[in-house]
Amino acid sequence: MSHIIHYVTTNFKKIFYTVCTEIISYIQGTALHFVLVAAFLGTLNHFLYFLSGQSPIVALFCPVNESVWEHLKLLYFPFLFVSIWEYLSLHPVVLPFFYCRYLGVLLGMFFTVSVFYTYSGILGRNFLILDILLFYSSVIFSFGMSEYISGKTRSPHETEPGFVVSLWLITSFFFFVFTCFPPDLPLFYSA
């Protein structure tokens, strides 16, 4: 992971152009329906907890309040489920695929948090329309970064099944735990 961070920080302009090109080509290709389904599931996910009568099981996968942390579930779980569907449909090499998808969604969540706090800090508050646009941008960004990373990563961990599965399971576990027991930090405060 540190080699990816170093590469990004030293080649930002080139990476930005390449990522934008990758995102456009990825979305214009056969993957458009995966991006659209992830965006649709994320949108549905926003309302599912209340539509379920506030089911504790649904609460693990859907936002239960208006905190930034809870809204990261809009990206994470639909992205995971669509990645599983994409794998079953296209049959790529399993471990590098899920490793790159994990890094893509992780960067997408970082993008979401960074842009949200930056724009709301500059403007002094958040705006619903900008939050909605940020969510859809994050979906596209996550898929695009995943595709970009798949052509660049050389991590030895991408071929270790336990490592790749652990990444997804540990992150899911943190979502579950912090839904039930949110820390007293601004990221977890409900707006």
Explained architecture:
The mean pLDDT is 87. 77% of the residues lie in helices and 0% in strands. The longest helix has 30 residues, at 94-123. It contains 9 helices and no strands. By secondary structure, the protein is an all-alpha fold. α2 (12-28) packs across α8, α3 (32-51) crosses α6 and α6 packs antiparallel against α7.
Shape: globular
Taking all Cα atoms into account, the compactness measure Rg is 17 Å
Please identify the structural class as seen in this structure: mainly alpha
Distance from first to last alpha carbon: 33 Å
Report the biggest beta sheet as strand number plus sense, adding barrel if it closes: none
By DSSP (H or I, 4+ residues per run), the number of helices equals 9
Order of helical and strand elements: HHHHHHHHH
* Poorly predicted runs of 5 or more residues: none
Count of DSSP strands: 0
Strand content: under 5%
What's the rounded overall pLDDT mean?
A: 87
Helical content class: over 70%
